Amino acid sequence: MFTDNPFIAATDFLPPRFMQAYLVLMVLAVVSGTLFDLYHKRSARFFAQQRRRSRAAATRQLSGADRVAIAARTLVNEVAISGEFCNRSRRISHVLMSYGFVLYLITTIVMVFAYPADPATPVVLPALWNIGALMVLIGGYWFFFFLRVDVAQERRPPWRLVRADLFIVSLLASVTFAILFELVALLQNLTATRLVFGIYLVFTTLLFGAVPWSKFAHMFYKPVVAVQRRMEEADGSSSLPTPADGRSEWG
Fold this sequence. Notes:
Strand content: under 5%
Helix content: 55-70%
Number of strands: 0
Structural class: mainly alpha
Distance between the termini: 43 Å
Radius of gyration: 21 Å
């Protein structure tokens, strides 16, 4: 199970090029959705205005080496290991989802384009695909049922959903049905396989197609905002208050 290309089962009722075309469409959906989000929320204008304001308010001139060092530290601490989360459980959950999703996504692309109908797919690819999917599910369901602010702090039931939950719900549904598709395909029931695969595509399309209305685009904004705030702290232009312990909010 964990060493076979799961997408080969889809070629029993769909041509291999279908999934290739579908992935291209999903990439275009993410790009166009992010650009629309930037335009609709005027995020690009905000970032540009904020940068001009910080330059005017700066009390220290940063060198190129300073900027590179700050950017590198920020990307490592706040992007690579989610160091902005003070809560250890939220940090672990976020890291599991982030790295799991990247692993799952990359192996999906490689298997669909390089081995669309090839039973000789290197076993490492489906193995990593399953590992990535399980990481997403562990981190995601942990977050969904126990770590969301309205659940953990406001004691609201986990089934109460708002628009902000669109990303996590569609992500978990997409990856869950990807695993279910892999399991159902083993039963060699074509009708059931088609049904589960269709549901998988529905939730995957929702995940990548709803970028302007979900938190998907935040994955791209987060590094930009984090680096900009670190730069402002370093050049003295930050308008944020200094924490009582003297540490940076982003440290």
